[in-house]
Specification:
Order of helices and strands: EEEHHHHEHHEHEHEHEHEHEHEHEEH
Strand content: 5-15%
Number of strands: 13
Oligomer: single chain
Largest sheet: 10 strands, mixed
Length: 394
Amino acid sequence: MPKLVNVRPFVIKTEPPHKGGQYWYFVKLETDNGLEGWGETAILGTLNGLSAAYLKIVQNIFDTYLKGEEALDREYIYSKLYFGLTFQHPDYVILGIMSAIDTALWDIAGKHLKTPVYNLLGGKIRDRVRSYTYIYDPEGNQSLKETNRMWTQEPERLGEMAAKLVDQGFTGLKFDPLVEVKTEQRIFRPWELSQAELGHAERAVGAVREAVGERADILIGTHGQITPSAAIRLAARVEKYDPLWLEEPCPPENYSEMGKIARATRIPIATGERLVTVHEFQQIFAEKACAFAQPDLGSAGGITAVKKIASIAEANYVLMAPHVWGGPIITAAALQIDANIPNFLIQESIGTAGGFFEQICKYKFVWENGDFIVSDRPGIGMDLDEQCLERHSV
């Protein structure tokens, strides 16, 4: 059986327009028989100061907990890391590192057995994975700053861009219709919304619905920046446009308040990108606060944890819509889960997973008419070009 002998962490800075974030965090595990497994940590926000610490922490974790272990003992290693690193009180960053390690272990297992990870999870239910994207320029020429200005100041332009993406094949489009007004009172979240902000959000959602008609679902993401009362008022304004979901309508740490919002609107609630482990998702499900679960394969605990989350979600009639904001390994790992679970709804994507992804990946993602085509390559189906990573290393 292959044993773990080495780890190589990478922190890279992406090229403009930085879709998926400015910094990506990767882990490569190596075994004594020459197998390599790739994982990725999701870090929301621009934590460039974490770069040096990330490299040291990953190396220390490997030396302390992983070196010499059987690479196929994924459940054992996950539990060993969970108890050793969190003492049963997990946090977002540590679970992100655990996620990268766990995904890399599944990648090694699939390569060792010469089969895709989805076969190790129980087999494949679907060959195609439905995807959605934020409303970006389909040609990729638009910066994130320009995109943000478009959806906060130009509803008509937002509608035009949405229509182009639907023409390209997308059947789900996400955007944040809230205008970010920076004041001294808004240094910390959550905050209340003014009438002008509510009115603008209503016009923005209306413009997208008018542009796409019934050809695509509208997904509203508010990034947990407003109070429950503001979220309820916002939902009342935009219910008539029948969005598929209202995402993170308040900060995700208070499950009962999220439940209150869910019971106050006909719009289904989606949440989970900042939740970790099966335990936090169980709490959100217990509050009936979530119709669509959005664990991130780079932060929730990796493939081991997200498979468990999907199982308890299934028991609660909650559908899965894994979150992606980061690099290609998170996307590749998510597609393995998506192919396997019965309660899958839709997968977040950074556009069509091209652009900078294709510079650092050895293979291309296959995206066709709104869907990813599930790869039959062993492991998670994606390897990275280390020379390219070195050129972009921080």
